[in-house]
């Protein structure tokens, strides 16, 4: 794909803003839209062409990337922009949304004579800024091939996971497992505290024993053993509890919709939804402080 390819970019928030900026840096013409004036100003400073409506950004573009808060907004916006696009335009939705919504978005695009991929990401705001996101992509192989050069600019790893919706499936499966493993790890840490096991000794044993996990060795939820983990920075995110709660609710919906007996996944969604009511802005690893408090101990 040449840099003559015109890109429409809709949703210039914490993630979309830096992702669009990386495409501009790589030499692409980016037609950008977001209703929020501060996001528009930043995109202008980053070198994008900010236009007045989403439809205007789409009409002149070959590929349209969306990075939006939720599935309802994606579907509503697709209703507005699909009729405005040139035939065969490739729509790449990078938002984290319900698998069913992602499939519906792809069907709407196809019915309007266009092509679509779901391409949710992990890696957070830091990954978006550094261009090191992981993309999990669902859709046709030929459409994946067309989007790949752009995804490789914004990402460090790009995986074609399967057909429409399967990118979102990979995202929620991974994050469900991460949420579950962080809760399980935190319960074990608090139990260890009650039984006189120090954090250092817990780490020393478990990090090389059968209870080992990424949550422990790369993201330890208590200060000390892993210096870069948010626990050492008053649980400043990192990956905010609000986002973990959102992803776990999507996973719980998918468990139910597909008849999976996912008892721990459902419970993890409930636990993070409750924690999110008080601590939405804290890193999700702060769940250990909640478990400790609910176990009658101070932080
Ligand atoms: P954000 O709220 O910062 O950005 C969303 C942007 O979409 C906002 O600027 C908003 O004004 C804009 N928007 C809303 N309606 C619009 C419309 N109709 N047209 C154009 N723009 C519109 O959210 P974010 O943190 O950038 O997250 C975006 C998506 O990425 C979410 O689905 C989130 O779950 C996912 N995600 C976020 C992170 C993270 O660490 N922030 C990590 C992985 C995935």
What can you see in these coordinates?
- The protein is an alpha/beta fold.
- The protein folds into two domains: 158 residues, Rossmann fold (3-Layer(aba) Sandwich), CATH 3.40.50.720; 126 residues, Orthogonal Bundle (N-(1-d-carboxylethyl)-l-norvaline Dehydrogenase, domain 2), CATH 1.10.1040.
- It is built from 13 helices and nine strands.
- The strands form two sheets. It has a six-stranded parallel sheet with strand order 3-2-1-4-5-6, sandwiched between helices.
- Strand 2, helix 2 and strand 3 form a beta-alpha-beta unit.
- It is elongated.
- Nicotinamide-adenine-dinucleotide binds next to helix 4, strand 7, helix 6 and helix 11.
- InterPro entries: 3-OH-isobutyrate_DH-rel_CS, 6-PGluconate_DH-like_C_sf, 6PGD_dom2, 6PGDH_NADP-bd, HIBADH, HIBADH-like_NADP-bd, HIBADH-related, NAD(P)-bd_dom_sf.
**Assembly category:** single chain
Task: Write down the CATH class of the largest domain.
Answer: Alpha Beta
Note the overall shape.
Answer: elongated
Number of strands: 9
Structural Rg: 21 Å
Known CATH architecture of the largest domain: 3-Layer(aba) Sandwich
What order do the helices and strands follow? EHEHEHEHEHEEHEHEHHHHHH
